[in-house]
Amino acid sequence: MRSSTIRTALAAVLATGVAAAAADAAPRKVMPDREYYGVSRMAPLTDKAGDPVNGKVVVRTKGLCLSCHTAPIPEEPDHGDVAPDLAGVGSRLQPPELRMRIADPKVVFPDTIMPSFLKKQGLNRVAAAWEGQTILTPQEIEDVVAYLSTLK
Amino acid sequence: MRKRVVAALAVLTAAALGGKALADPPFDPKDPKMAPYIAGDKRSGYTFAEPETRAMQDDDFTNPGFLWVEEGKKLWGKADGAAGKSCKDCHGDAEKTMKGVGAVYPRFDPHVNGVLLLEQKINQCRTERMQAAEWKWDSKPLNAMTTFVKHQSHGMPVAVQTDGPVAPYFDMGRRLYNERRGLNDVACKHCHEDYWGQHLRTELLSQGMPNGFPQYRLKWQTLGTAQKRIRGCNEEIRAEPYPWGSIENVALELYATWRANGLKVESPAVRK
């Protein structure tokens, strides 16, 4: 790119930069579909009961929960320590509360680092390979809830 | 506040697990050897690195980044392009004329009426003054020249400007730094402001200070720029990374570099 092109491109981009900065106050994201936080959030996400055995597998693998949480899973090394220990979480929280904290923890902790495992709308710049997907399926979340409920 | 609560919980957890906590690299803020890598509350990535990685950086002979410094030094004196000029023909002795330059980039450039990265400034000289072809992003010569020029500011405090014509870029950078992105729906600030010093599995989070770039990264097995690292962080959170040198990635680098103002330039640093 010749520098005259750089100049025009940058001038244009600067103008949008200013506009973007000025538009900061305006809402940038579409609000997510809140259906599952309604009254129904208390209800299971699927008709099939959660499977705690598979739930533990999801916690260790696809859920990447141990990136951040310590948990009573000694066979897996190097748990992260960004988040609270999941040991005993089944006594502290009831299944509906667990479900909500996994499906979209931002409802409870607006500034949390924890991903929303059932969110696909209202996200920003999702990599093309993941566009339109959720991290976990509703059934996987039910399985994780069933597993966490065993951690008394 | 919340961070402190979680941190306290983490400490309790570590205690309860009885020594299961990971052994972190030693860091004593009062150790005089650490003084060059601290500025107030700011800590260079060096202070989060393993002793072996620090030792590798400390010794110019074992620091692989110096291969790029050497290469850049060669290119500095080599004529290229239709104008038949080298960098040296205009700028003379880099040890003198380039001292301090790397510490103030990304910087406002009156020729383009916008903020430029050091890489972009180098390419501006190539196209405008040498009539040579632009070097490609992340190419060996561009990384070598950037590292060579940046290294001339080694030990000088980072001092990027954020006011005047830079302000709109800076505001954009701040917004992007604090904005959730990707399928993981997190922002830069979550990892590098809220949870530095804690772990994502074996990964010890640092404050994300770019004062050592271009840096040799063991995981990459090569040297790379802040642009590459920022794209990498976006990829890790399953976000579409911003293109090299795009206004967004420049604004992010500007904001991240401003956070490191006062820390010393370490280029070429070595990291995990």
Please give a structural write-up.
The complex is a heterodimer of chains A (152) and B (272). With 152 residues, chain A is mostly helical. Chain A contains five helices and no strands. Chain A has one domain: Cytochrome c-like domain (Cytochrome Bc1 Complex, Chain D, domain 2), CATH 1.10.760. In chain A, α2 packs across α5 and α4 crosses α5. Chain A starts with a helix and ends with a helix. Chain B is mainly alpha-helical and 272 residues long. The longest helix of chain B has 15 residues. Chains A and B meet through α1 of A and α1, α6, α8, α9 and β5 of B.
Helices, strands, pairings?
The complex is a heterodimer of chains A (152) and B (272).
Chain A: H1 3-22, H2 52-60, H3 89-92, H4 95-103, H5 138-149
Helix pairs in contact in A: 2-5, 4-5
Chain B: H1 2-16, E1 38-39, E2 42-43, H2 51-58, H3 66-76, H4 87-91, H5 94-97, E3 107-109, E4 114-116, H6 118-129, H7 140-151, H8 167-178, H9 188-194, E5 199-200, E6 203-204, E7 215-217, E8 222-224, H10 226-236, H11 247-259, E9 269-271
Parallel strand pairs in B: 7-9
Antiparallel strand pairs in B: 1-2, 3-4, 5-6, 7-8
Helix pairs in contact in B: 3-7, 6-7, 8-11, 10-11
Number of helices of chain A: 5
What string, H for helix and E for strand, traces the elements of chain B in order? HEEHHHHEEHHHHEEEEHHE
Please bin the fraction of helical residues of chain A: 25-40%
The second-level CATH architecture of chain A is Orthogonal Bundle
Q: Considering the protein shown, what is the CATH homologous superfamily of chain A?
A: Cytochrome c-like domain
